[in-house]
Amino acid sequence: MKRRNTPTKTAVLSTLEQAGTALSHDKILTQLNGTIDRATVYRILNRFCADGIAHRIVADDGKQYFALCEGCSHEEHSHNHFHFRCLNCDQVECLTTEVTVGLPAGYRAKNFNGVISGHCSNCSDG
Protein backbone atom coordinates (compact mmCIF):
# COMPACT_ATOMS: atom_id res chain seq x y z
CA MET A 1 0.00 0.00 0.00
CA LYS A 2 1.28 3.44 -0.93
CA ARG A 3 1.62 5.60 2.15
CA ARG A 4 1.45 9.35 2.28
CA ASN A 5 4.76 11.13 2.74
CA THR A 6 4.53 13.60 5.63
CA PRO A 7 7.05 16.04 7.08
CA THR A 8 7.10 13.93 10.25
CA LYS A 9 7.98 10.72 8.37
CA THR A 10 10.60 12.63 6.39
CA ALA A 11 12.19 13.92 9.61
CA VAL A 12 12.42 10.42 11.14
CA LEU A 13 13.78 8.95 7.90
CA SER A 14 16.34 11.73 7.61
CA THR A 15 17.47 11.11 11.20
CA LEU A 16 18.06 7.42 10.44
CA GLU A 17 19.86 8.24 7.17
CA GLN A 18 22.17 10.77 8.82
CA ALA A 19 23.03 8.41 11.69
CA GLY A 20 24.43 5.67 9.46
CA THR A 21 23.93 3.18 12.33
CA ALA A 22 20.97 1.82 14.24
CA LEU A 23 19.27 4.21 16.66
CA SER A 24 17.05 3.62 19.65
CA HIS A 25 13.69 5.35 19.91
CA ASP A 26 15.14 7.62 22.62
CA LYS A 27 18.10 8.66 20.45
CA ILE A 28 15.75 9.48 17.58
CA LEU A 29 13.60 11.62 19.89
CA THR A 30 16.70 13.41 21.19
CA GLN A 31 17.94 14.16 17.68
CA LEU A 32 14.50 15.49 16.73
CA ASN A 33 14.67 17.89 19.70
CA GLY A 34 11.19 17.03 20.94
CA THR A 35 9.51 18.23 17.74
CA ILE A 36 7.59 14.94 17.36
CA ASP A 37 5.82 13.07 20.16
CA ARG A 38 6.90 9.58 21.31
CA ALA A 39 3.84 7.72 20.05
CA THR A 40 4.11 9.20 16.56
CA VAL A 41 7.78 8.22 16.30
CA TYR A 42 6.93 4.64 17.40
CA ARG A 43 4.13 4.48 14.84
CA ILE A 44 6.42 5.72 12.06
CA LEU A 45 9.20 3.28 12.99
CA ASN A 46 6.74 0.36 13.05
CA ARG A 47 5.46 1.37 9.59
CA PHE A 48 9.01 1.63 8.29
CA CYS A 49 9.61 -1.95 9.50
CA ALA A 50 6.36 -3.20 7.96
CA ASP A 51 7.17 -1.49 4.65
CA GLY A 52 10.76 -2.81 4.45
CA ILE A 53 12.34 0.61 4.94
CA ALA A 54 13.91 -0.22 8.30
CA HIS A 55 14.45 -3.24 10.50
CA ARG A 56 14.14 -3.65 14.24
CA ILE A 57 17.02 -4.93 16.33
CA VAL A 58 16.31 -6.17 19.83
CA ALA A 59 19.66 -5.88 21.58
CA ASP A 60 20.99 -7.92 24.45
CA ASP A 61 19.90 -5.14 26.84
CA GLY A 62 16.27 -5.58 25.68
CA LYS A 63 16.21 -2.16 24.02
CA GLN A 64 14.92 -1.82 20.46
CA TYR A 65 17.06 -0.16 17.81
CA PHE A 66 16.13 0.68 14.23
CA ALA A 67 18.35 0.63 11.16
CA LEU A 68 17.60 1.42 7.55
CA CYS A 69 17.34 -1.56 5.24
CA GLU A 70 19.70 -1.89 2.33
CA GLY A 71 18.53 -3.79 -0.73
CA CYS A 72 15.24 -4.94 0.79
CA SER A 73 11.71 -4.70 -0.48
CA HIS A 74 8.44 -5.57 1.22
CA GLU A 75 8.48 -8.91 -0.65
CA GLU A 76 12.15 -9.69 0.08
CA HIS A 77 12.75 -8.52 3.64
CA SER A 78 15.53 -10.53 5.26
CA HIS A 79 18.04 -9.52 7.90
CA ASN A 80 19.96 -12.66 8.60
CA HIS A 81 23.02 -10.92 9.93
CA PHE A 82 24.57 -10.14 13.29
CA HIS A 83 24.47 -6.77 14.96
CA PHE A 84 27.10 -5.35 17.28
CA ARG A 85 26.31 -3.21 20.35
CA CYS A 86 29.15 -1.34 22.01
CA LEU A 87 28.93 -1.51 25.80
CA ASN A 88 30.78 1.79 26.08
CA CYS A 89 29.22 4.17 23.52
CA ASP A 90 25.99 2.15 23.03
CA GLN A 91 26.30 2.30 19.24
CA VAL A 92 24.52 -0.53 17.42
CA GLU A 93 25.55 -1.42 13.90
CA CYS A 94 24.75 -4.09 11.35
CA LEU A 95 27.63 -6.44 10.60
CA THR A 96 27.89 -7.27 6.92
CA THR A 97 28.74 -10.96 7.21
CA GLU A 98 25.81 -13.22 6.35
CA VAL A 99 25.09 -15.99 8.84
CA THR A 100 23.97 -19.51 8.09
CA VAL A 101 22.43 -21.40 10.97
CA GLY A 102 22.35 -25.20 10.86
CA LEU A 103 18.90 -26.33 11.93
CA PRO A 104 17.62 -29.85 12.58
CA ALA A 105 15.84 -31.67 9.75
CA GLY A 106 12.35 -30.34 9.14
CA TYR A 107 13.05 -26.83 10.48
CA ARG A 108 13.05 -23.80 8.18
CA ALA A 109 14.28 -20.42 9.36
CA LYS A 110 12.55 -17.33 8.11
CA ASN A 111 14.56 -14.71 9.97
CA PHE A 112 17.49 -14.45 12.34
CA ASN A 113 18.44 -11.68 14.76
CA GLY A 114 21.72 -11.98 16.61
CA VAL A 115 23.44 -9.33 18.73
CA ILE A 116 27.05 -9.41 19.81
CA SER A 117 28.02 -7.00 22.56
CA GLY A 118 31.50 -5.78 23.40
CA HIS A 119 33.61 -2.75 22.57
CA CYS A 120 33.64 -1.19 19.09
CA SER A 121 36.85 -0.23 17.30
CA ASN A 122 36.55 3.36 18.58
CA CYS A 123 36.19 2.29 22.23
CA SER A 124 38.44 -0.78 22.41
CA ASP A 125 41.89 -0.68 23.96
CA GLY A 126 43.62 -2.13 20.94
Walkthrough of the structure:
The chain is an alpha+beta fold. It has a single domain, classed as Arc Repressor Mutant, subunit A (Orthogonal Bundle). It is 26% helix and 25% strand. The chain has three helices and six strands, in the order αβααβββββ. It has helices spanning 7-19, 25-31, 38-50; strands at residues 23-24, 54-58, 64-68, 81-86, 92-98, 113-118. The strands form two sheets. Strands 1-3-2 form a three-stranded antiparallel sheet. The chain has a three-stranded mixed sheet with strand order 5-4-6, with no helix packed on it. A hairpin with a 5-residue loop joins β2 (54-58) and β3 (64-68). 16% of the residues are buried.
Give the beta-strand count.
6
| Spatial sequence of strands, sheet with the most strands | 1-3-2
User: Can you say what the CATH homologous superfamily is?
Assistant: Winged helix-like DNA-binding domain superfamily/Winged helix DNA-binding domain
Largest sheet: 3 strands, antiparallel
**End-to-end CA span:** 48 Å
* Class of secondary structure makeup: alpha+beta
Task: Bin the strand percentage.
Answer: 15-25%
Cα shape: globular
Using the coordinates shown, work out and report the CATH topology.
Answer: Arc Repressor Mutant, subunit A
Task: Give the CATH level 1 class.
Answer: Mainly Alpha
Give me the Rg, rounded.
16 Å
Provide the succession of SSEs: HEHHEEEEE
Q: Detail the poorly predicted runs.
A: none
Number of domains: 1
